[in-house]
TrEMBL record:
<feature type="binding site">
    <location>
        <position position="42"/>
    </location>
    <ligand>
        <name>NAD(+)</name>
    </ligand>
</feature>
<dbReference type="InterPro" id="IPR022383">
    <property type="entry name" value="Lactate/malate_DH_C"/>
</dbReference>
<dbReference type="InterPro" id="IPR036291">
    <property type="entry name" value="NAD(P)-bd_dom_sf"/>
</dbReference>
<keyword id="KW-0560">Oxidoreductase</keyword>
<feature type="domain" description="Lactate/malate dehydrogenase N-terminal">
    <location>
        <begin position="5"/>
        <end position="152"/>
    </location>
</feature>
<dbReference type="GO" id="GO:0030060">
    <property type="term" value="F:L-malate dehydrogenase (NAD+) activity"/>
</dbReference>
<protein>
    <recommendedName>
        <fullName>Malate dehydrogenase</fullName>
        <ecNumber>1.1.1.37</ecNumber>
    </recommendedName>
</protein>
<keyword id="KW-0816">Tricarboxylic acid cycle</keyword>
<dbReference type="InterPro" id="IPR011274">
    <property type="entry name" value="Malate_DH_NAD-dep_euk"/>
</dbReference>
<feature type="binding site">
    <location>
        <position position="92"/>
    </location>
    <ligand>
        <name>substrate</name>
    </ligand>
</feature>
<feature type="domain" description="Lactate/malate dehydrogenase C-terminal">
    <location>
        <begin position="156"/>
        <end position="324"/>
    </location>
</feature>
<feature type="binding site">
    <location>
        <begin position="11"/>
        <end position="17"/>
    </location>
    <ligand>
        <name>NAD(+)</name>
    </ligand>
</feature>
<dbReference type="InterPro" id="IPR001252">
    <property type="entry name" value="Malate_DH_AS"/>
</dbReference>
<feature type="binding site">
    <location>
        <begin position="129"/>
        <end position="131"/>
    </location>
    <ligand>
        <name>NAD(+)</name>
    </ligand>
</feature>
<feature type="binding site">
    <location>
        <position position="162"/>
    </location>
    <ligand>
        <name>substrate</name>
    </ligand>
</feature>
<dbReference type="InterPro" id="IPR015955">
    <property type="entry name" value="Lactate_DH/Glyco_Ohase_4_C"/>
</dbReference>
<dbReference type="InterPro" id="IPR001236">
    <property type="entry name" value="Lactate/malate_DH_N"/>
</dbReference>
Length: 331
């Protein structure tokens, strides 16, 4: 039998946490043959709710679940973890300045970076979900210098999956027949959902989505804005932000990272830029990646047209500004 993997979920008493922990305990994230021990962290005002989640995990009697740690102590939460999914953060409240929200999150991610660096298992893989996801991940990277930078990522898989979903709805085909969309850049409304390289599996083989949709107006307009603004549309409809889709996408992100992407398929992940596609190095930026043996690699050599170039640069500029704002909060 396999040794259990320890998976940390921060903000575990929140909405996404509530959807995510049962998925992990059922093997959706790491496979149905992989036992897990869940570590759940939240802050003291949520301690009672967190304990309630722990009670429900016990009550669900998940066969793969070999233990649950529920705590408000970051050191206890981080000790020995192999995977860390960082969902906890400070939400933007009405009337708050961007800088104030950034400052709260910078403080959280700086201190949790230290706890992870000192106490997590060697080679711990980190996924930051909490917004501003790219910049929180960057701060975590900066303050956990002994964790390899390739181990620190942020979630743009939800946006990627939303893009697949929009193409599938438009063409009235199963979503599993669509692949290789790309989310470039920031997990924000400046992200660039790109279908230029996406393909559809048909009875006559794989066809470019662009050729089949053949409606450039939709592809360059409504498709992009729908994906960019989907988060806001969900909040409007549900009066709560996306939780089941965020949790499911977080499982997809970790599963593909750990177990590998299928041959010929890439996915989007926010990773530390090495300057690929002339994206400034030193930003956490969403790229198309393939994964093998627990490592991701940026897909190289995709042609980028002029329209796309502008969009790649625009979202990079926003991330550069966010980075500067985050640094200004450190002093
Ligand atoms: P929520 O407000 O329901 O839950 C957040 C939880 O984090 C709360 O239980 C809160 O007590 C906890 N928390 C706050 N500070 C903490 C700290 N220092 N340490 C540990 N826990 C802490 O929010 P929800 O809906 O679960 O969303 C969580 C985050 O995920 C938000 O920042 C949201 O913007 C982000 N998000 C990101 C997505 C992505 O695709 N990257 C998609 C959807 C949401």
């Amino acid at each position: 039998a396999k040794e259990p993997v320890r998976v940390l979920v921060t903000g575990a008493a929140g909405q996404i946490g509530y959807a995510l922990v049962p998925m992990i305990a059922r093997g959706v994230m790491l496979g149905t043959d992989q036992p897990v021990i869940l570590h759940m962290l939240d802050i003291p005002p949520a301690a009672e709710a967190l304990n309630g989640v722990k009670m429900e995990l016990v009550d669900a009697a998940f066969p793969l679940l070999k233990g649950v740690v529920a705590t408000t102590d970051a050191v206890e939460a981080c000790t020995g973890v192999n995977i860390a999914v960082m969902v906890g953060g400070f939400p933007r409240k009405e009337g708050m300045e961007r800088k104030d929200v950034m400052s709260k999150n910078v403080a959280i991610y700086k201190s949790q970076a230290s706890a992870l660096e000192k106490h997590a298992a060697a080679n711990c893989k980190v996924l930051v979900v909490a917004n501003p996801a790219n910049t929180n991940a960057l701060i975590l990277k900066e303050f956990a210098p002994s964790i390899p930078e390739k181990n620190i990522t942020c979630l743009t898989r939800l946006d990627h999956n939303r893009a697949l979903g929009q193409v599938s709805e438009r063409l009235n085909v199963p979503v599993s027949n669509v692949k290789n969309v790309i989310i470039w850049g920031n997990h924000s409304s400046t992200q660039y959902p790109d279908v230029n390289h996406a393909t559809l599996t048909t009875s006559a083989g794989e066809k470019p989505v662009r050729q089949i949709v053949a409606d450039d107006e939709w592809l360059h307009g409504e498709f992009i804005t729908t994906v960019q603004q989907r988060g806001a549309a969900i909040i409007k409809a549900r009066k709560l932000s996306s939780a089941l889709s965020a949790a499911s996408s977080a499982c997809d992100h970790i599963r593909d990272w750990v177990l590998g992407t299928p041959e010929g398929t890439w996915v989007s992940m926010g990773v530390y830029s090495d300057g690929s596609y002339n994206v400034p190095a030193g930003l956490i930026y969403s790229f198309p990646v393939t994964c093998c043996n627990g490592d991701w690699t940026i897909v190289q050599g995709l042609p980028i047209d002029d329209l796309s170039r502008k969009k790649l640069d625009l979202t990079a500029e926003e991330l550069t500004e966010e980075k500067a704002l985050a640094y200004s909060c450190l002093t």
